Amino acid sequence: QVQLVQSGGGLVQAGGSLRLSCSASGGLIGVNAMGWYRQGPGKPRELVANITNSGVTNYADFVKGRFTISRLGNTLYLQMNNLKPEDTGAYYCGVFVKGPAGAYWGQGTQVTVSS
Q: What is the pLDDT of residues 16-37, one digit of tens each?
């Protein structure tokens, strides 16, 4: 059974930094891409950044130049610098795989940026 466990997050002042981690276990195979999504209060879940199995990265415009996604084995990271209050939300890691499973999701972690 594949399981994604997230860590990191918390409360930080505007301009600060946080690092999120997402560790996958349980025999993860056939990965197409891994990514980070976020959901702000009253907003739909949106893509923050993703990384393909070949290492190609993609960022939402609102985080370009501030956030960096990286992957080491089956652990996904998101380094978040120069955080803004509008970055506040629940952050989720997602792993997209070939086959019927489709996708796995982490449990989510709260990021709160105070002004």
A: 999 999 999 887 888 889 999 9
